[in-house]
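User
Take a look at the entry that follows and flag anything odd:
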Amino acid sequence: MTEEIEISELDRKIVRLLQGEFPLVAEPYKALAAEIGITEEELLTHITAMREEKKIRKMGAVLRHREVGFTANCLCVWNVPDGRVDEVAKRMAEHPRVSHCYDRNRTDDWQYNLYTMIHGYSREECEEIAAELAASTGIEERRMLYTKKEWKKTSMRYFSEDD
């Protein structure tokens, strides 16, 4: 049986804020908080509480890589020893040209368990970045899957203004 989680009106307002465009200003949370009439501290405290209460699971950015000039992008999949996944993922995620880094279960016909999204100005640059990641982690076995077509990027919408 699933436990019902109460979603308050403030929860809804905050989710609406977080699923929209993130303001590109020096104090983005302050700007967001002002939109719904609370302080930055109240917003951050409430976001933390919502995470702890499992009302929200994660927040993430969508990189529109072509808009910022990247013309080559690839999903690089790595075969990482299971005991090193966290350590290797942390190191790879620190690279400024890696926008996503996550682990996945292996399957019988796919041995790769760590995925990184690499952005560059050319395929050669993406390959250089992958080589840097390999050298810094000691993980060599990888495949590079290049973007052929960019699909429209949209985020999930949980509450609309009508809810």
Observations:
- The CA atoms of residues 118 and 129 lie 8 Å apart.
- Strands lie at 72-78, 98-103, 114-120, 142-146.
